[in-house]
Here is the input.
Amino acid sequence: MAVNDTLEGTHKIIESAREQQAHLNPLAPTVNDFNQELTTLNLGPTHPATHGIFQNILQMDGERIISGVPTIGYIHRAFEKIAERRPFYQITTLTDRMNYCSSPINNFGWHLTVEKLLGVEVPKRAQYIRVILMELARITDHLICNGILGVDTGAFTGFLYLMDEREKVYEIYEEVSGARLTTNMGRVGGMERDFSDIAIAKLRAWLKTFPAVMREFEAMFNRNRIFMDRIVGVGAISAERALNYGFTGPNLRAAGVDYDVRVMNPYSSYQDFDFEIPVGTKGDTYDRFMVRNEEIWQSLRIIEQALENLPAGPYHADAPHFYLPPKQAVYQNMEALIYHFKIVMGEIDAPVGEVYHSVEGGNGELGFYLVSDGGRTPYRLHFRRPCFIYYQAYTEMVVGQTLSDAIVTLSSMNVIAGELDA
Amino acid sequence: MADQNESIPAQEEAAAQDPAAQQNAELLALLHRLFGADAFTDVEEPYGLLTVTTTREQIHGIIAGLQKDQELQLNFLTTMCGMHWPDRAGQELGMVYHLHSLTRNIRLRLKIFFPIADPVAPTLTDLYSAANWMEREAFDFYGIIFPGHPNLMRILNVEDMDYHPMRKEYALEDGTREDKTDLFFGR
Here is the structure.
């Protein structure tokens, strides 16, 4: 009796597992035929090749992927909810933790949104400083993505060279904001401090040494036979499908659509600079890799122009209602003390209204939809996270390919878990 | 076209000065021509972005029509999100859609509102693949149901959560705590 019970229990477990499989993939056979048997593979949540915490339950026929079910939300931190309790300036630290590979872009994107709501005009110098830092952030973002793509195809060396360069950019961040990864850079109304001489010196030194490293990296990868065999034609998506999936940024441009927020809706004086938008043709992993490489060169061009023409003048707006006064003045000047208190307590006069502002993030259009009811906090704040929107297409892009192709596709899409889950 | 412009003289006047306002006037004229002037209430332009409110019965037809339209080509769904206004009786929940024309660089914001007792909105998954996770997010956060969605389940929160956390009745901090009142600065 006992044996029978156990057997029955086992059968039930197998039956329910089959039902689950059938739910995941209607093509999964229910007969126990060895030749048709599919394997269920859990890729993630903590798999080294996913570079972040998210899971894909793949149905495999040998090495081929039949179907996939992505599960996300492992590091969901409810930023949109938390933002409804925080004054505007405290939300900057939430944006850091979305795309942590390019925090300054997120920071300034948020500040630009609030400045648009409050109607604050930021002086040219602050805008140029922001452009320099945002382009540095874009470079580090692309360096990580392309470096890791090398790692995932078995070429570790390039990654180490690029990490070294990222380290130097982080030292520049450190000089500007005091932080390295989650930078909390700038304030509503401009920067919290000007570029110091050390920061300028570090930046100039880096601009001299970096191109040689980048050229070396490109020489190692761009026409490398093994590398190209591994990624050409892998994980391709057509421009039409990419647009339907809401792709933006390098992934969309690799498919051949020249949409770049910096050009289409210039912010922070991007219209002053001369740069090109690289586009690909097939939207495959190789195109994404090449578009990112070329964007690094274009970002360098922008930084050089901005540094060359860096205007003199104040580094923040003359907006005492929104911009913290210098600490010394707070102790000696009554008005400064009052403004300091009001800003820190979040008691600024925000108008009632709604505003959408977007910037070109490392991965695409990073948008902020802010609804203000005139209170100290946003009534509703929605982040348009490019990763969250384009990662939906991943299953469609890898079905029919092999597992190792799926890994490089994921790598080249540059899915950042923090941005994916917010 | 001409008679539509006559009905909105204020926009026409503003259009003469500002290219953004001109685009908005053109877009509004197109909306009125395609879907009728009474399809839209509350036409606003906060910070230069044309914002119209419509009903949940019409929203699918409007977005589908704009996607097909060859003149302005508003065929890129930038984002969508849910909203909760507990004080608006019968209009508590809402969805906000942002559309973008990549060829003409025109943006449009569409809104719909519906009662919280009947939180149903049409799905856009048949028009935009991108709508899939955005709608799952709105369901997860606000409990908005999208009939016809292929896989309407929670996306960011855990499956067995039994409430929709972005609704305003769920305060961020524990509502039973008495040691930490926030009378002066809280909502």
